[in-house]
Design brief:
Number of domains: 1
Structural class: alpha/beta
Helix content: 25-40%
CATH class: Alpha Beta
Number of strands: 9
Strand order of the largest sheet: 3-1-2-4-5-6-7-8-9
Low-confidence stretches: 1-38
Strand content: 15-25%
CATH topology: TIM Barrel
């Protein structure tokens, strides 16, 4: 994949209105045409981090992947391992982000968070990535409407269990728009969580919608325990572990 088709990064409005900007830059924004200002804002996105690693989850596990972690999340799951993404980040142009992704030379890109769909410009980023020829996946909490996401993107959608402390945030309407390219993920924190997820799986026939992932909450439910439950009940789910944590432990940028 070549990079010369990606437009060069430009100076964003966020950089212009920064307190360190020259007064003349601030005046430029004051007299800018509203439509021009809106277009610029739509091409900006707040990035927590971009890094190259192995995909640790989903059916793409083990594949070299560029991760684009967006800032912000309206949920506060009890097992969250990326709380640093709630607020930390830098506003960048989507063009600039595409350039950095291309520098890694990988075909797989995963947009994650936080909750990436909390930023409206995430939808534009996803489409731009697909247009550039990447194989794109989106990791989302399941609390926000996924129907506007580009159809070329594989949506990895959480269903929050009671043990997450955010079960009330599940947007059940999302189930109606998912397809075989997508995946549903349950993070299991206890046997009660497992029983709840199993009942939901059977009641709503989730296997007929897309592949289902069951993942043990890291450091809370052992892999052996969850495996025993899945085998006991002969559930048609993919049990997954977080490969990146097995290799590198629980740290950022992997």
């Amino acid at each position: 994949m070549t990079t010369n088709m990606i437009p060069a990064a430009h100076v964003s409005d966020a950089e212009i209105i920064n307190s360190s900007a020259k007064p003349t830059s601030a005046r430029t924004i004051a007299f800018a045409r509203p439509s021009e200002f809106t277009r610029t804002r739509e091409n900006e996105i707040r990035i927590n981090e971009i890094f190259f690693s192995l995909q640790g989850e989903s059916s793409r596990v083990g594949l070299p992947t560029v991760f684009v972690r967006l800032t912000g999340c309206p949920l506060r799951c009890g097992y969250c391992d990326t709380a640093y993404a709630f607020h930390e980040g830098k506003t960048r142009s989507i063009d600039d982000v595409l350039v950095e992704i291309a520098d890694h030379g990988a075909n797989m890109v995963c947009v994650t968070g936080g909750e990436p769909l909390a930023q409206k410009s995430c939808l534009r980023l996803l489409s731009r990535l697909c247009d550039a020829g990447y194989s794109v996946s989106l990791e989302t909490s399941g609390a926000i409407d996924v129907s506007p996401v580009d159809a070329r993107v594989s949506r990895i959608v959480d269903i929050k269990t009671p043990g997450s402390n955010e079960v009330s945030k599940n947007r059940w309407e999302n189930l109606q728009v998912l397809n075989v390219r997508d995946e549903l993920k349950f993070v299991i924190t206890s046997e009660a969580d497992y029983s709840w997820a199993r009942a939901l799986l059977l009641e709503k026939k989730l296997n007929q919608i897309c592949p289902i992932l069951f993942s043990p909450s890291y450091g809370v439910v052992s892999a052996e325990t969850l495996a025993a439950w899945v085998l006991r009940d002969k559930l048609a789910v993919r049990m997954q572990l977080q490969l990146h944590k097995i290799i590198w432990g629980e740290k950022r940028g992997v």
